[in-house]
Each structure stands twice: as C-alpha cells, then as structure tokens.
C-alpha cells in the first residue's frame, strides 16, 4: 500500500473543508455523503481523536500483548485475533509465547509443533503462514520484522489489516486498520449505510479510516477504535450514552444506529453426514493426515467412510457404532457417526497413515473433530486408553 505524505493527511483531517468552517456539527444531507469523510467529521476530526484517545487511556483493555510494543508479540496476537474472540485468544497467546518466545524459536520449530500449539484456534492456514513468515524474517531480515506496512505485506499471511496493525502499534507508523470492530464504529460515525461486504464493500471504510487517522499515535488510535467497537459500539444495543464519540456520531444524529452497518445476508448452512472409523490393532489406533485442499490440511484425524483404499488392505472386521458428535466448519454443520473396528493385518505403509497409542494420540496435532472422535472411542474402551485425545500437558 502506498503511503500518503503526512502533510497531505494533516490537511485532510485537520481543517474544515472550504466553506464549511462555520457550520454546525451536523449539516444537511449532502454533508453525509460528500467525499470519504463527511464534512462534519472533517470539521471535528481533532476533537474526535482527542475524545477517543482520552477514553482509551482511561478504560482501554489491559491485554497481554499490549504490555510493551514488541513487534513479534503484536504480530502473533493480531494473527490469532483474526477470526477468534479476544477472550479466547488470551490463553492461547500466553501459551504460544511460552512455547515460542522469539521469532527465531518459532522459525526453528517443526511445523507439527506449531500446528499443535495452534490447536483449538482453528483456521490452521494462519499457523502455517505464521511459521513460513517466521522463517522468512529470520532468513531475509535478520530476525527482525520489517517496520513498514509495505515490508510486512511481503510476508506470507500478512494482509492490509495485519500490516497496518503491526506497523502502527509496534512501529508508530501512521497506518489505518479496518477490522470487525473498527469497521462498525467508522460506519456509524460517518453514517455509511451501504453494505460492507467483502473487500469491495470495505473500500469506503478504509478511506474513512485513513482520513480520520491521527498523524501521531496511530497505534493507540487504532486500538482505541477496536476497543470502542468491542465495549461500547457493539453490534446490538450500543451504549451510545456512554460513548466518547456521541457528539460527533452521524448515525446517532440521524437516528440510524440500528440500521448501520447494513445487514449482510447470512450464508445458508449446509448439513452433512459422515461416518468416522476408529481402526484398532492391539493397543494402537490408525490416524490419517488430512491432505492438501481438505479442511484442517496437515492435521491428523480418523478415516471417514468409504475409505476402502485404507480399510480393505487392513482386513477390517465388522464395525460397531460407539457414538455420535457434530462439528461446524465454515458454513457447514457435520453430523458424525463414530464406529470402531479391528484390523487383522498391518496394511499399507503410507506417509499420511500412522498407528499410534493413547499417549502419542494426545501429543499429535489433531483436528477438533478428531479429538471428539478420540474421546468418544476412548469412552467405549478403544483409542489407546489413557491419554488419548487429551491435550498435551502444559509446561510449568
Ligand atoms: S454514538 Fe453510538 S453508534 Fe455512534 S459511535 Fe458511539 S456507540 Fe457507536
């Protein structure tokens, strides 16, 4: 992303538009749609910045990755926060930092260890890209994260939002961000009523974010926007009377808070059914690694029927159903029937198949459904007994 000259940005945010200087805070309808930043917000941008930064200083959330400005910690937290709620991320973040305290240690770790540490956060592609980016940072940047948004975007898995977050928070670069919370705040503040679907729909919000960005303390500003969206300007029932931006908010002034952002159509949930097979041989069970293009690529799971190419060479006997479970992934809800059978032969040797005992099963990087299937089969006296399906013990 090309950076704007700082002087140009100051002019846009700091001064009322020509002819608007003496207007009241909320003008006529044209003011609400003229340019990326409606005139009342242009006129009040410095007051908006001061009000939000003051509020953030008083009540901003105390989160572990905010203690200091280590770019590595900022990066890890931002990647974890994509698609995952803050409350859930805190424990994962602390464990991950204990396991991989530096980018060098992350780069040197086997991918399986990184995936194992990521287990429970979902969206494993993020973990793979994080690992790949760590290797690039060590190999090409001497173990230091690039300090510009453009440099950061060269790394795997770092897009416009993450680059802006790291550059502004860790390096105090004047870069905007747009994510779920700040998107909602900015849309309401500017009374931007168009649907915000995908990157195209986000375009005007990025322009508003850029135009409102303070020239200094952009990292604090960005975090303040996110906190305001999480704590005050919530999707439903926002706490407008307690909002530091209430005097400037065009959605509030025009009675459209409930209508902004415009609702996006929900994707239809697709119901699927599948049968998992826990194949037992002595004290061990068979696991299969998910292949390229599958959900949870690279993680271990149990075979699903028909799987004739796996089960036939093993000489599996009759299957017995031991339980049922469900899981959701993207917009699919999957009902799983869990069955067990005994293998009479060793069967194939393939890189994506392993015979594991209970202890090893607990230590594998495994899919979330795989863990549930392991727990169900353990309850039925299968899956290797003690330790199967259990998370690896935490250190310390
Ligand atoms: S006044 Fe209400 S709608 Fe406007 S930014 Fe504040 S909380 Fe959100």
Structural class: alpha+beta
- Write down the overall geometry: elongated
- Indicate the CATH class of the largest domain: Mainly Alpha
Please report the number of helical segments.
16
CATH topology of the largest domain: Endonuclease III, domain 1
Query: Sheet with the most strands?
Result: 6 strands, mixed
Q: What's the helix-strand series?
A: HHHHHHHHHHHHHEEEHEEEHH
Task: Provide keyphrases for this structure.
396 residues, alpha+beta, Endonuclease III, domain 1, Nucleoside Triphosphate Pyrophosphohydrolase, 2 domains, 6-stranded mixed sheet, 43% helix, 11% strand, elongated, disordered N terminus, disordered C terminus, binds iron/sulfur cluster
In short:
With 396 residues, the chain is of the alpha+beta class. It has 16 helices and 6 strands.
Furnish the topology, listing elements before pairings.
Layout: H1 6-14, H2 39-59, H3 71-81, H4 86-99, H5 103-108, H6 111-118, H7 124-141, H8 149-152, H9 160-171, H10 180-189, H11 198-212, H12 218-231, H13 250-253, E1 270-281, E2 284-289, E3 300-301, H14 308-314, E4 320-329, E5 332-342, E6 353-356, H15 358-363, H16 368-379
Parallel strand pairs: 1-5
Antiparallel strand pairs: 1-2, 2-3, 2-6, 4-5
Helix pairs in contact: 2-12, 3-4, 3-9, 6-7, 9-12, 10-12
The site of iron/sulfur cluster has 14 residues, from helix 10 and helix 13.
């Amino acid at each position: 992303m090309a950076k704007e000259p700082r002087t140009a940005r100051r002019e846009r945010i700091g001064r009322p538009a020509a002819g608007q200087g003496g207007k009241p805070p909320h003008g006529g309808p044209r003011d609400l749609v003229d340019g990326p930043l409606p005139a009342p917000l242009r006129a009040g941008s410095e007051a908006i910045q001061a009000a939000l930064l003051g509020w953030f200083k008083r009540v901003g959330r105390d989160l572990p990755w905010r203690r200091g400005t280590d770019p590595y910690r900022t990066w890890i937290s931002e990647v974890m926060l994509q698609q995952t709620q803050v409350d859930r991320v805190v424990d994962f973040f602390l464990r991950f930092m204990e396991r991989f305290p530096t980018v060098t240690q992350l780069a040197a770790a086997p991918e399986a260890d990184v995936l194992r540490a990521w287990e429970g956060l979902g969206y494993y592609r993020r973990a793979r890209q994080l690992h790949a980016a760590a290797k690039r940072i060590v190999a090409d940047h001497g173990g230091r994260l690039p300090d510009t948004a453009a440099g950061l975007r060269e790394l795997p898995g770092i897009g416009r939002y993450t680059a802006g977050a790291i550059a502004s928070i860790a390096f105090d670069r004047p870069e905007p961000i747009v994510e779920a919370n700040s998107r909602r705040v900015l849309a309401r503040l500017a009374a931007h009523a168009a649907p915000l679907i995908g990157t195209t729909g986000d375009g005007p919000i990025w322009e508003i974010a850029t135009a409102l960005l303070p020239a200094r303390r952009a990292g604090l500003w960005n975090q303040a926007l996110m906190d305001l969206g999480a704590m005050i300007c919530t999707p439903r029932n926002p706490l407008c009377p307690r909002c530091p931006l209430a005097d400037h908010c065009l959605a509030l002034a025009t009675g459209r808070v409930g209508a902004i952002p415009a609702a996006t159509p929900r994707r239809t949930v697709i119901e699927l059914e599948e049968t998992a097979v826990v194949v037992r041989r002595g004290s061990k069970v068979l696991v299969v690694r998910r292949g390229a293009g599958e959900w949870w690529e690279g993680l271990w799971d149990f075979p699903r029927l028909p799987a004739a190419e796996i089960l036939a060479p093993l000489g599996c006997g009759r299957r017995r159903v031991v339980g049922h479970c469900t899981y959701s992934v993207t917009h699919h809800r999957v009902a799983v029937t869990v069955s067990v059978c005994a293998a009479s032969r060793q069967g194939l040797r393939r890189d994506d198949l392993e015979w594991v005992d209970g202890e090893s099963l607990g230590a594998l990087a495994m899919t979330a459904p795989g863990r549930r299937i392991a727990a169900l089969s353990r309850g039925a006296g299968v899956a290797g007994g003690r330790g199967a399906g259990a998370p690896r013990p935490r250190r310390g």
